[in-house]
From TrEMBL:
Pathway: Carbohydrate biosynthesis; dTDP-L-rhamnose biosynthesis. The keyword Isomerase applies. This is dTDP-4-dehydrorhamnose 3,5-epimerase. GO terms for biological process: dTDP-rhamnose biosynthetic process; polysaccharide biosynthetic process.
Amino acid sequence: MLNETKLGGVIEITPRRFADSRGHFTETYNADSLAQHGITTAFVQDNQSYSRDIGTVRGLHFQAPPSAQAKLVRVLQGVIWDVAVDVRKGSPTFGHWAGVELSDTVGNQLLIPEGFLHGFVTRTADCMVAYKCSATYAPDTEGSVRFDDPDLAVDWGIKPEDAVLSDKDAAAPSFAAFVSPFICEGTS
Ligand SMILES: Cc1cn([C@H]2C[C@H](O)[C@@H](COP(=O)(O)OP(=O)(O)O[C@H]3O[C@H](C)C(=O)[C@H](O)[C@H]3O)O2)c(=O)[nH]c1=O
């Protein structure tokens, strides 16, 4: 099942879960199934992160072209609030954000195209997140924007002062200082 969010291209995907007396089975990724919905993103790297505490915020991050990443995010254990921010120059939703709760119990996923900042906050302890990326890690192209930037005004559901952050994220620049390396398809 696919649900469009208010940001074009950011799509919640809930694969079918086959339950039986042993538990359940899910095809967490099937390129042919996604292609039937017009999703042909080629993923080349799988990531997994573990976050010990509730309120851990990882983000808002991106990789710039030529290493821009689309991502397909899911939760192996726990619950997160997963956030994408449109930063494509020329996009009618530039600077807008969308959030979706992803959990291991629902098994839903979020597809985030290139041109979006990505971040999440954990809503449970011992949270394990896995996500596919359409470009491999290129640290020289990495960038970030502070998660609690007032211009973006993302609602994380926590007080900013309660966020558990990496040093890198605690020192992330503001959105006002951000110069987007992305353009929206169909715009110059
Ligand atoms: C992203 C990445 C990181 N690393 C190394 C670099 C650091 O030594 C260590 C932790 O990296 P970082 O603090 O950037 O990890 P997160 O804060 O979880 O970053 C991620 O968080 C948000 C949610 C994202 O969408 C990105 O994938 C990514 O930026 O892993 C690698 O070796 N390969 C990688 O692809």
